[in-house]
Amino acid sequence: MPKAIENLILFLFGGAIYSMIEVLFRGYTHWSMTLTGGLCLLILYRRFTARPHEPLLMKCLFGAIVITALEFAAGCIVNLWLGWGIWDYSGLMFNLFGQICLPFSAIWFFITIPAAALSEFLSKRFAEMKPLIAET
């Protein structure tokens, strides 16, 4: 399967999952979080498949850092720069400009566990599809 198609599938899947998590816990989401979620899964997938034997603890640490950094970047754009007010963590402890906070970074650490398992699953499925696509 061409990498561009893989990337598109990963991006769409990550965006859908991230949005569903937000709807489940907040009751709503915003399209900017769909884009952020897509980028998160794409980055995590590429890292995890490039280093399949990396310890889970390191994967979780990497995931927490990446997701937190992308949320911070998205928050700075949509909340601080554009003023859309999509979220505000300023009432939570250990926050940075109300855009990210330590408690959510801890959640991202643990959410990386299923993201790593999903990456392994998708990697195997993409590998199975490559011979089928090459035949056509």
Describe this protein with a few key phrases.
mainly alpha, two-stranded antiparallel ribbon, 76% helix, 136 residues
Counting helices, strands and paired strands, the structural category is: mainly alpha
Helix and strand sequence: HHHEEH
> What's the shape?
globular
Main sheet overview: 2 strands, antiparallel
- DSSP E strands, number: 2
Strand order of the largest sheet: 1-2
Radius of gyration: 16 Å
Summed up, the helix count is 4
Distance between the ends = 11 Å
Q: Give the uncertain stretches in residue-range form.
A: none
Strand content: under 5%
**Kindly state the mean pLDDT as a whole number?**
94
**Percent range for helical residues?**
over 70%
Walk me through this protein's architecture.
The protein is mostly helical and about 140 residues long. Helix content is about 75%, strand content about 5%. The protein has four helices and two strands. The protein has helices at about 5-25, 30-50, 55-80, 100-135; strands at about 95, 100. The protein has a two-stranded antiparallel sheet. The radius of gyration is 16 Å and the shape is globular. The N and C termini lie close together (about 10 Å).
